[in-house]
Amino acid sequence: MNFTSGKRSVRFRGFSAAFMLLSICARGDGADRNVTAVAGKEATLPCECPPDDPPYVVWQKDTGEEPLVVNSLKEDDKTAPEYHDRTELKLETGNCSLVFYRVLPSDQGLYECYYKTKPLKHDKIYLDVTDNPQRVSDLSIRKTVVSSSVCGILVIVIAAAAVFVGITRRNRHQTNGFPQSLTHPRPRRAGSFSWFLSVGRQVNRVDPHQVLRVKVMTPVWLSM
């Protein structure tokens, strides 16, 4: 079983997911967004759509039952009466945003932007309506700080992982590049010059007490 290819596959998937999250941080938002608006003021729900000509887009509000058509670019106009003359599609190249000219408290909820692709795709935007303009500013600052902190931590983690993998691979290549004579030295042949040198070093490291014990245990006929 080849475990090396499995490790490379897991490592590749991990880095792919990390760089995908990093790209989302670079854009500053994800697929689902939250928009906070002040009642009675103008608000825009963003939606990025393909540059089709003519574009196909439908904005709906999720009510939990039958969705309400808020605005659409279709021949059969099925826009709900409560949104007539209050909304407009901001159609530009790659932009199908929905504009509220006068936001009502009842407009709060989840909206979906459907645009023509193969298959049909959509974005989800939640509209939060408030009476306090200061709350809109505070929420915007808080979201920016949180998003920047998360993206900053993600960048540090990815950089640390890349450095670790680079050092590991470099050390592995250096180990594999050593000559076999350095990693697995050949045994010295008896009688060679290097063998005598090694024997001499071992003799110099012998304890005198051990030598004394050897002389005492020597047979008598060898000492005569």
From TrEMBL:
<keyword id="KW-1003">Cell membrane</keyword>
<keyword id="KW-0325">Glycoprotein</keyword>
<dbReference type="InterPro" id="IPR007110">
    <property type="entry name" value="Ig-like_dom"/>
</dbReference>
<keyword id="KW-1015">Disulfide bond</keyword>
<dbReference type="GO" id="GO:0007166">
    <property type="term" value="P:cell surface receptor signaling pathway"/>
</dbReference>
<feature type="signal peptide">
    <location>
        <begin position="1"/>
        <end position="30"/>
    </location>
</feature>
<keyword id="KW-0732">Signal</keyword>
<dbReference type="GO" id="GO:0042102">
    <property type="term" value="P:positive regulation of T cell proliferation"/>
</dbReference>
<dbReference type="InterPro" id="IPR013783">
    <property type="entry name" value="Ig-like_fold"/>
</dbReference>
<protein>
    <recommendedName>
        <fullName>Ig-like domain-containing protein</fullName>
    </recommendedName>
</protein>
<feature type="transmembrane region" description="Helical">
    <location>
        <begin position="145"/>
        <end position="167"/>
    </location>
</feature>
<keyword id="KW-0472">Membrane</keyword>
<keyword id="KW-0812">Transmembrane</keyword>
<dbReference type="InterPro" id="IPR013106">
    <property type="entry name" value="Ig_V-set"/>
</dbReference>
<dbReference type="Pfam" id="PF07686">
    <property type="entry name" value="V-set"/>
</dbReference>
<dbReference type="GO" id="GO:0009897">
    <property type="term" value="C:external side of plasma membrane"/>
</dbReference>
<dbReference type="InterPro" id="IPR051713">
    <property type="entry name" value="T-cell_Activation_Regulation"/>
</dbReference>
<feature type="domain" description="Ig-like">
    <location>
        <begin position="40"/>
        <end position="113"/>
    </location>
</feature>
<keyword id="KW-0393">Immunoglobulin domain</keyword>
<dbReference type="GO" id="GO:0031295">
    <property type="term" value="P:T cell costimulation"/>
</dbReference>
<dbReference type="InterPro" id="IPR003598">
    <property type="entry name" value="Ig_sub2"/>
</dbReference>
<dbReference type="InterPro" id="IPR003599">
    <property type="entry name" value="Ig_sub"/>
</dbReference>
<dbReference type="GO" id="GO:0042130">
    <property type="term" value="P:negative regulation of T cell proliferation"/>
</dbReference>
<dbReference type="GO" id="GO:0071222">
    <property type="term" value="P:cellular response to lipopolysaccharide"/>
</dbReference>
<keyword id="KW-1133">Transmembrane helix</keyword>
<keyword id="KW-0675">Receptor</keyword>
<dbReference type="InterPro" id="IPR036179">
    <property type="entry name" value="Ig-like_dom_sf"/>
</dbReference>
<dbReference type="GO" id="GO:0006955">
    <property type="term" value="P:immune response"/>
</dbReference>
